[in-house]
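Worked Example 4.2. Read the sequence first, then its structure tokens.
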Amino acid sequence: MIQNIIKGINGYSGAFALISKLKLWKYFFIPIVISIITATIIGVSAYGFSDNIGGFIAKIWFWEWGKETFTTISTFIGGVIVLAIGIILYKHIIMALSAPFMSPVSEKIEAHLTGVTKHHHRKTTFQEQLIRGIRINVRNLGRELLITLPILLLKFIPVVNIFSTGLLFLVQSYYAGFGNMDYTLERHFNYKDSIRFIKRNRGVAIGNGVVFILFLFIPVIGVILVLPLSVTAASLSTVKLLKVNQQNIES
């Protein structure tokens, strides 16, 4: 698992240079606009809701003693909840809406790596790519929320809440990498087979998503570069996995 996570992270090596070499920046213009608008809306909403959620949680404490301390902790936890859900919504929205623009990017990267310019894989239209992107990300959004909400409840348990932060980060990373890898897989596999393939290579998905999530903590630049670099990195890693998968089938 750890080796695969490292492979996913290593996919970012040379990603920026490859984008420039293959002249892919033009494909990222609309996704970057989508990313900036989505991040702005969610960011403003999160700022407004964090105090409200913290105040709501603080009402659980009926006693006067320790009220101030519990309110402070509640405000912090409220901020974490809003941040976590905000990132979840952000990544699934931009990955779903950007699918038709990211598929050509992954296709050009695959052609560059394999030398095959005319592939015989599944041919999909702009609309089909958008529908699949929405379907994959709605599916992942539901599952991620089901996993995330119990993890957030662990924040109220001392000591345990330290480990819950790491677990939350890994879950966020997995589903970010999941969406990025599917841009390449949609040409090779149908919906169900793509899910099975990523589950078998969840370490690579986590590795790709780790850098994706970290990018979001970089003000402004993060939401601009997160898609170009993460999608390019995921394409590089996924093409290599597909090659190994094909070799295993042939052997």
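Now turn to a second chain, presented in exactly the same format:
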Amino acid sequence: MHRRVFLSTSLMTALAMTLRANFADPLVINAGVGGNNTDDLLKRIDKDCLAHKPALTVLMAGTNDMNSRKYIPLEQYRKNMATLIEKIQASKSKVLLMTILPFYEPYLLTRHDPAHYGTDGPVKRRAAVNETIKSLAAQYKTELLDLGTLFEKVGKVGLDKDSLIQNEANSQKTDGIHPTPNGYRFIGLAVYEHILLQKLPQSRIVCFGDSITNGDGSITKESYPAYLNKLLQS
């Protein structure tokens, strides 16, 4: 004999709200902070990354390290990145490293003294940072997404309105470094596809980095962690 169980309308509503809340929980944490270099990331990795017990940590850093205001020499940058990777791996999280994005040099040099880059210039400085990231990925056997090359090939980095990097035509800013909303969508999609292709964890993901990770600081609007979260929720 089966008993019928009747639930009150209020209880059914409460259960439905609980289910919706559970499904809406973010799978991704936006742990980007504007202006951070690798020294800053080392200071906050325990609180802002490891405390979340990530299954996957997406790490992109180096744009501030190479520029004049938060400059870290390349050898120290490598040591800092190695320490970050070792700490993350020790927590049993997988690591996905991403190379840093290209920039529109004339805008960059309005905010940073050209003399800072020596004879190499900012383009070669960025190339050295990205080669360091690739070398670290090989050394520590992490995942690697060469995001910088993807942006170079399709980003139209410059003065066009459809550039994936902010400029006067698409954002009324002489920025040249940070992605547009479409740029953030592109990053989110690139990370999402890499996760699927490499069968990486699809929840408990911490995106750790600087302002390019932070975006608008949200997990729902204009940041690559927000778009990644939407894709993983779908």
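Notes for the reader: The radius of gyration is 20 Å. The mean pLDDT is 92.
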